[in-house]
Amino acid sequence: MSYRIAVASSDGEQIDLHFGGASFFYIYEVDDGGNYSLLERRLVPQVEGAGGAPASCAPASCAQGGDGCAPSGAGCSGQGGGCGSGGPSARVEQLADVRAVVAAKIGFNVTKQLEKKAISSFDVECTVNEALEKIIKYFYSVDNHVSLARR
Question: Tens digit of pLDDT for each residue in 66-117?
């Protein structure tokens, strides 16, 4: 059974974007043998108004813990009305056909919306290849009821 994984990356090599800061996601397809390949680069809805996000909510501001990322969840992680997104619901809908979403940061509300659609979410900062290999191994273990405990 093949499945898809969405990755938030600026260059296709490093997972370095927050869920709400990504203007597109790399979509990888994983086949029955655990091999993966890039399927597409999918655009996602942007901030309402053609001007984009306010400067305080730019992804770089999020990565640096800038003041634009409100602790209430209305900030750059895409939790609220949202910096870098057309709202988290629209972004989640664009990714409804994937099994997992991988980003440098995924906010709590987005994680809950993904869970409602049975989509796993992973907050990581590493290479795309490293993340995909580990996630594929994890899903193999889950799908085949293999213990994840070290022997």
Answer: 333 333 333 343 334 444 445 678 899 999 999 999 999 999 999 999 999 9
Q: How far is CA 7 from the centre of its chain?
A: 5
> CA-to-CA distance for 105 and 89, rounded, in angstroms?
17
Furthest CA-CA distance within the chain: 54
Q: Is the dihedral of CA 132, 138, 141, 145 positive or negative?
A: negative
Distance between CA atoms of residues 1 and 87, nearest Å: 31
Total-model pTM: 0.72
How many CA within 13 A on the CB side of residue 128?
20
Other beta carbons less than 10 A from residue 131's beta carbon: 22
Distances (CA, A) of 30 to 13, 63, 128: 17, 29, 14
